[in-house]
Specification:
alpha/beta; 5-stranded parallel β-sheet; 4-stranded antiparallel β-sheet; 20 helices; 17 strands
């Protein structure tokens, strides 16, 4: 309907240009939005207010001219001018109801489009260090990153999901020494315990598996424990593989998969870090000071220059990040989205500056970033901090065990990434309308119940009769639901472009609210065959869109609750 109104307004503009009412070269972007108050119609535009000045007319006078110049259309019941010059459109009932036919015909494809034209997009998310179980912050990144990937796929992009393993550096050394200490029977607080050692109970599990000579099957390697207490390299290899496998199991339980697992260590093994340093030196953006090698990032918008190679010869963490992103660019990803925690905020400018300093043709502002804020988990109003597995934080597996995968994913992706999130375990477990995921899933299950009831009463759904009878959907609640269904493709398009899956969550809540309101106000199982089937068709269309939207969030659509 929105596209129909935009087309009508474009026709009106053509007519007004031909009449000399508007300048011949004027080509505005036409904005049409759903109205908040249905007394003001279904859609409205402020086009007359936008064009009043260039047209040299009062907004309301121009609005009257616009309305007069509109082509005729059976899709519009009436048009009104409101306030200083807003134009309100009332959709014809039959035209609005045709969205039901469109949804039923398209099925799972409703809301999807090909605007991405197969363009390659890489989404990097989670990218947790292999030093412990995935915590709830990683879970938020997984939920958001996977939903962004699904949205991009739904809009015609070729998406690669990538997980970057920081399997090199100080944290891995701390992990190895922590496991070695446990292997030797040293506990936290004992003499010989590493100063920055990991204290979680999972370290004991790794140590016991190492001593038992277990073989670990991770995504790209199989490591058998040597069992030697003094072989720190063997302990490191085994511990990293063990925890990578654990993270893979966490992600599998969460319903998240990746196409590529990229190892930081490979950048060193293949000489890509050193090659990046050499290229930066050759481009003249580096200098030496106090025995360290610096990158002049202030030339590219940073607040101060950054050390690349410390005086002890070790690289700082942002340099392999630059090498890694150069590799992404060389793999042909013109669009890259990094979904990371807000603690990565300081790296955004540095990485982008390093990429510009390479002078490799990489656009300014590349890559894109989506940074999520912290998550606080509460039970009975009190923050939950400890986990049996991790010892110091709540893991993704803890939440899944507590409230299930669907609730965990929906809650973690249902708010803007840049807003802090309180995950209320009691709310997520409750079967009430206050629980957003329950509220949405219950709407889907309610439609399934309607259809079962129709079958039980020997009044099964008649598709042919329903499609012929859609004009009978005249109740205000039915119209509101029809208009909501019609907006879904636009919401998908906008959410994908903005990388904001919470727009889908909000839409689903609004759709569920419209459905529950309609269900409570309008009787479905009436004696009139045509009206009953039209209303069943409306329910079926709602169920389809709910399922499509929930799928974009990686959440199931149960038929019974």
């Amino acid at each position: 309907m929105k596209e129909t109104i935009i087309a009508l307004l474009e026709g009106a503009l053509d007519n007004l240009r031909q009449q000399g009412v508007l300048p011949a070269d004027i080509a505005p972007t036409i904005k049409v939005d759903p109205t908040r108050d249905k007394a003001h119609g279904d859609y409205a535009t402020n086009l007359a207010l936008m064009l009043a000045k260039p047209a040299g007319r009062k907004p309301r006078e121009l609005a009257e001219a616009l309305v007069a110049a509109l082509p005729t259309s059976d899709a519009v019941q009436k048009v009104e001018i409101a306030g200083p010059g807003f134009v309100n459109f009332f959709a014809a009932t039959d035209a609005a109801a045709q969205v039901v036919r469109q949804v039923l015909e398209a099925g799972d494809a409703y809301g999807r489009n090909l605007t991405g034209q197969g363009r390659k997009v890489q989404v990097e998310f989670v990218s947790a260090n292999p030093t412990g179980p995935l915590h709830v912050g990683h879970g938020r990144g997984a939920a958001i990153g996977d939903s962004i990937s699904r949205l991009l796929e739904a809009t015609g992009h070729e998406v690669t999901r990538e997980f970057y393993y920081n399997d090199a550096g100080a944290q891995i050394s701390n992990l190895a020494r922590s496991v070695q200490a446990r292997v030797k029977g040293i506990d936290p607080g004992d003499p010989g315990w590493p100063e920055d050692g990991y204290r979680g109970g999972y370290i004991i599990d790794v140590a016991n598996a190492y001593l038992a000579g277990e073989t670990v099957h991770a995504d790209d390697r199989h490591v058998t424990a040597a069992g030697d207490q003094e072989d720190l390299d063997a302990i490191r290899d085994f511990a990293v593989a063990y925890l990578r496998r654990e993270q893979d199991l966490d992600l599998k339980a969460f319903g998240v998969t990746f196409d590529v697992y990229f190892l930081e260590s490979s950048l060193y093994e293949q000489g890509k870090v050193e090659a990046t340093v050499q290229r930066l030196i050759e481009q003249g953006h580096t200098y030496e000071q106090d025995g360290a090698l610096w990158l002049r990032t202030t030339d590219f918008g940073d607040d101060k220059d950054r050390v690349m190679r410390k005086s002890d010869g070790h690289y700082t963490y942002f340099l392999p990040d630059v090498a890694y992103h150069l590799d992404k660019w060389q793999r042909g990803f013109e669009t890259v989205i990094n979904e990371q925690g807000a603690d990565h905020h300081s790296t955004v400018t540095r990485v982008r500056a390093g990429l510009q300093a390479l002078e490799a043709g990489i656009p300014q502002g590349w890559p894109d970033y989506v940074l999520h804020q912290m998550v606080m988990v509460t039970r009975s109003g009190v923050e939950v901090k400890l986990s049996k597995r991790a010892g110091s934080y709540v893991t993704v597996r803890d939440l899944i065990d507590e409230v299930g995968r669907d609730a965990t994913r929906f809650f973690l992706a249902a708010r803007r990434a840049d807003s802090q999130l309180t995950f209320d375990i009691d709310l997520a477990r409750s079967q009430s309308n206050d629980n957003p995921v329950y509220y949405v899933q219950y709407a889907h299950a309610r439609v399934c119940s309607m259809l079962r009831k129709a079958e039980a009463e020997e009044k099964p759904f008649d598709h042919a009769l329903a499609v012929q009878s859609l004009a009978l959907l005249e109740a205000d609640q039915e119209k509101a639901l029809l208009n909501r269904l019609a907006r879904y493709p636009e919401v998908v398009q906008h959410a994908a472009a903005a990388h904001e899956p919470q727009q889908i969550a909000q839409y689903l809540l609004d759709l569920a609210a419209d459905f529950h309101t309609c269900y409570n106000a309008v009787k479905v199982m009436v004696d009139d065959d045509a009206l009953r089937n039209a209303r069943l068709a409306l329910g079926l269309a709602t169920r389809q869109v709910l399922r499509n939207g929930l799928d974009l969030m990686g959440v199931g659509a149960p038929e019974e609750m």
